[in-house]
Amino acid sequence: MASLFNPPVASFSPIRPSLNPSKMASNFNLNHTLLRRSITSNDNTDIIGDTKLFSSSLSMATGGSSDGGDKTSRKLPVLLFDIMDTLVRDPFYDDVPAFFRMPMEELLELKHPTVWIEFEKGLIDEAELEKRFFKDERAIDFQGLKNCMISGYSYLEGVEELLIALKEKNYEMHAFTNYPIWYEMIEEKLKISKYLSWTFCSCKNGKRKPDPEFYLEALRHLKVEPASCIFIDDRKKNVEAAKEVGIIGLHFRSADLLLQDLCLLGLDISPDRSCLKSPST
Description:
Blueprint: H1 21-24, H2 32-40, E1 47-48, E2 78-81, H3 95-100, H4 104-110, H5 115-120, H6 126-132, H7 142-152, H8 159-168, E3 173-177, H9 183-190, E4 197-201, H10 202-205, H11 212-222, E5 229-233, H12 236-244, E6 248-251, H13 255-264
Parallel strand pairs: 2-3, 2-5, 3-4, 5-6
Antiparallel strand pairs: 1-6
């Protein structure tokens, strides 16, 4: 999730797949050097992390195993998704300043410097957030603020279609997000749990990205090797933190480019499905 104090720069576009996943399936057998070469030759791809191409662990990603054994084994890789500004629009940058009738610069100057982080980590409740939202503890329309956030939550363009395609291929997906208990408001509106589990939220785990222990805790919970996980986030520093513990990292810029990145890693996604075609096709 993008930090509330460092607005991201991102562009989003419909999915227009240009890669054939049936050909990409063989990428699981490529070495890391060849993957890097294919990535650097594609201006639309920015895959961060030492993939090692998942070796034998990700050979199960199409339902099989490296030794020709049990084909009912857990399907890998496991996908870990940041939520805000990766799957869901973050209302903070445009809607909240408008709600308070002040420019972003003024809002950041008047806002308490740590209260949101404390709320994200589950250290304080809504009553404390309301009281300390501003440094001078001025009264605010707290329910109005929550309604503003709810109104602003929406899937980023093309993202839900990609989640549907991944779900239909039985990929295991989890949220891995810095967000407070208000993730329940996102769930109520968008029903993200149709596609992934709200497994790793800072308010429940008491940790925030890019703390390495947050990533390691996720690996222990999932009982998988780091190279059997793909982490997607719009913030590069969070992707780089995943890389440090051995998780495959993808920098999110749009649903279109994420589809291409996943195809390059050999994931079984069919781009000829109508739900993955752009409106013009």
